[in-house]
Amino acid sequence: MFWKDKQNDLEIFSYDANDRRSSFRVRPPSTEPIRITFQGKSVSVKDIGGGGLSFCNNNFEVGDSQSVTLDLPGEGINVSVTMQILEIDQQDVCHGRFVAPSHDVINAIHRYMLTVQKNSLRMKRRIAREMSRSEDRPAHARSLVETNEEDMERATGLSIPRPFSVD
Description:
Blueprint: E1 2-5, E2 10-13, E3 25-26, E4 35-38, E5 41-49, E6 52-56, E7 65-71, E8 78-88, E9 93-99, H1 103-133, H2 137-155
Antiparallel strand pairs: 1-2, 3-5, 4-5, 5-6, 6-9, 7-8, 8-9
Helix pairs in contact: 1-2
């Protein structure tokens, strides 16, 4: 939404969403999932950001907290952080936040997120180039989408947090 501040002659942009996240998140590619062990149960991370992550519920409860180890693909290190479940939504997905993460943990997660985003853009560009070169574009496009359907869905499922600011 745009509005004009007439007193200062400025155009102001506002992003309004129902998303209460405080940071941007990405979905790990299906080819390199992130798994954590929470309360003795192995779960797959659905999305991750500098402020937290989400995963499918496995009889967990809001408020459950535990130190987890993240093996971030491409980072070559394991990072440990305490994670607390803030909410379990109607789809039975646990949404958690990192409790007092170190700068090293946040930096490792942000590097991982950038890598996922870069790889997603490369894949989209490759598909676009291959589609433009193909003589039988509809059939070629279907074959590309079918082989990469899950990753494409994950790549386009990124969310922008509310509130949004640039520091």
